[in-house]
Design a protein that fits this description.
alpha+beta, five-stranded mixed sheet, four-stranded antiparallel sheet, 9 helices, 24% strand, disordered C terminus, binds zinc ion
């Protein structure tokens, strides 16, 4: 699934619809928490009749579906932090999987029964949407985004490429021996700059500080994001042309490595925590899925220490190099790690070496919910390939 968006100013009539939609979501949230239900089926049984009858039935269903996602995230956050605030839909938005139609470059969206609004789609959107099926439409007061999907057939990999993200670069090492380094030092520098900017705020007012830092964060994202997109695109394109699968480290709990009390300097911790490994992985994964390139995650255990030639534990040498006391090799640190990760993927292939292979694919973050309305009966169906718009 991918999404394409365009700017669009909605009319007051649609704005009212968005407001109604938000109100419905908040009603559903209240019902969900009060009755302690979060599954789509029970939630729709408990809350459907409480929603305004003036609304089109599929908008009511989409509001319930939206709520299940909110409740799911709320439950997850609450497990981590018991003081998580009660969820409340604040932003005006509407997501629908039904009722819209695209014809002659226009998107037709029903507001009420037999009352439609038309949105002109720009040439970029039309170009992207040609030949794919549109799954859902999301409207906000100033934008419109359309989610579309494509069936892909996974390419049977002829080898694997391991990706290792370091502070200043991403290194890829393929099982056929090629090594590539993608420079990301610019991203690290941008993040350091903004960290310094944020540390120099003088006003002792939490509200203003929050506002300014969120603005800074937005600017920082706008500058870092394109760099990561560029690298992830190149990695996936490369893997596709050489028909190899992508192997990455499963990086759960990495933040715990760099937290207060670990005997590291404040500056070092800040630098290590500014890594955008998660974002890079996310981009590589969705781009690879779209192109049919296999993605595998291996546990991050000793990938940077083990010798990629003989498997012996290496010793630190100078200038980001490693020395293996067993086979005498001198290895590049980043390259060695990427090779080890790629080797982790080999165990996954039918004629690879057996071993402690604990390889697993990461599951998609959310599950989509498809409602079917036929003759007043509501049925549900879950689809794995959903991306929360
Ligand atoms: Zn060795």
């Amino acid at each position: 699934m991918k999404t394409v968006g365009q700017k669009h100013q909605v009319s007051p009539e649609v704005l009212r619809l968005l407001d109604e939609f938000r109100r419905m979501v908040n009603v559903c949230i209240a019902v969900g928490i009060e009755e302690n239900v979060s599954s789509l089926k029970t939630l729709s049984m408990k809350s459907y009749h409480r929603l305004s009858r003036d609304m089109l039935s599929y908008y009511r269903l989409c509001a319930i579906s939206k709520t299940t996602v909110i409740l799911h995230n709320y439950r997850k956050a609450k497990k981590k932090n018991a003081r998580t605030r009660f969820p409340n839909a604040r932003k005006l938005m509407l997501t629908t999987c039904y009722g819209f139609k695209i014809q002659n470059g226009l998107l037709r969206l029903p507001v009420r029964r037999r009352r439609y609004v038309y949105v002109k789609l720009n040439s970029h959107t039309l170009h992207v949407l040609s030949g794919v099926s549109v799954r859902s439409v999301t409207l906000t007061p100033d934008s419109l985004s359309l989610t579309y999907s494509k069936e892909t057939i996974e390419i049977e990999p002829e080898g694997y490429v391991g990706i290792d993200r370091n502070l200043d670069n991403a290194t890829s090492a393929s099982t056929d021996g090629t090594v590539k380094t993608f420079d990301l030092s610019m991203a690290t520098r941008i993040k350091t700059d903004y960290r310094i900017v944020k540390s120099q705020f003088k006003r002792n007012d939490a509200r203003i500080r929050t506002r300014i830092s969120s603005k800074c964060g937005e600017r920082q994202r706008n500058r870092v994001q394109p760099l990561l997109h560029n690298v992830s695109k190149r990695i996936v394109e490369d893997a596709k042309t050489r028909r190899v699968g992508i192997v990455m480290e499963k990086l759960t709990g990495i933040r715990r490595l760099y937290q207060k009390g670990n005997g590291q300097s404040r500056n070092y911790r800040a630098r290590m925590n500014s890594w955008s490994y998660g974002e890079l992985q996310r981009q590589i994964e969705y781009k690879a899925r779209w192109e049919g390139v296999r993605v595998i995650y291996v546990p991050a255990r000793n990938t940077s220490k083990r010798c990629s030639i003989c498997g012996y534990k290496t010793l630190e040498s100078t200038q980001r190099r490693l020395w293996c006391p067993h086979c005498g090799a001198i290895l590049d640190r980043d390259e060695n790690a990427a090779r080890n990760i790629a080797a982790g993927g080999l165990r996954f292939s039918p004629n690879g070496p057996p071993g402690e292979a604990m390889v697993e694919e990461r599951e998609p973050e959310n599950a989509t919910i498809i409602f079917k309305v036929d003759g007043g009966k509501i049925s549900h169906q879950c689809d794995e390939t959903y991306q929360n718009p």
